[in-house]
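All the exercises in this workshop are built on plain-text protein records. A record pairs a protein's sequence with a compact description of its fold. The structure tokens are whole numbers drawn from a learned vocabulary of backbone shapes. Once this layout is familiar, the rest of the handout is easier to follow. An example says more than a description, so a record of this kind follows.
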Amino acid sequence: MSTRHENADGPEDIDAAFAEIVAGLERDEPMARWPEETTRTSSDTPQQPAEPEVVESAPRDWTPPADAPDEGHYEPPEPPPMPKPTVTTIGGITLVVLGMTLLLVPGLVGLGATAALPIGLVAVSSGIGWLLFRMRKSPPDDGAQL
């Protein structure tokens, strides 16, 4: 069984290797030296930055000339009216609302919380499933038609 003191990579060798690396870095001349800190006198105060030039007009100050022709304003067409909900849509929404009522206020219907929870979850999931399966399938989009 070997101990750390018997290994060649013990702490003594690490310290010696680190000292050798630092000495090698100090010998390199191209390496930049940190500038020595000097005390600053009153004559060394930095100069005030120059005042920015005042611009007569800026891009946001631009206004169109009065004699410019009006290019017209785009007015989108009225959207189509909302489709009337079918009986199946109303049934799905009713199931979701009834299920949420059972989940939030189980005593309103006269059921205990243990019976209302599964019935409410089944009602909500059935209503959402009913609404998803009844969605209209739109034709595939072929992109812009010119």
